[in-house]
Amino acid sequence: MDWGQHRWKKRSRKRPTRSIALSSSSFHSEKLASLGRMAAGVAHEINSPLTGIVTFGHLLLKKFPKGSEEYEDVRSRH
Prior knowledge:
This protein is mainly α and 78 residues long. Helices cover 90% and strands 0% of the residues.
């Protein structure tokens, strides 16, 4: 038996496993990155209308006199 050939066979059996593990790890990382981008997009889409609603609430607070029923109603929901 040639020991050099034996070592090569042993190494060649390990390489596919390592390659598959790296590929799986890379796939998992890409999947998590994609999920993060999607979550950021959803958060942005939700935040945009909420900004308008909050701004409108501030404008209503300026419109009504302090202590009025309308002012307190807007303030309690704000």
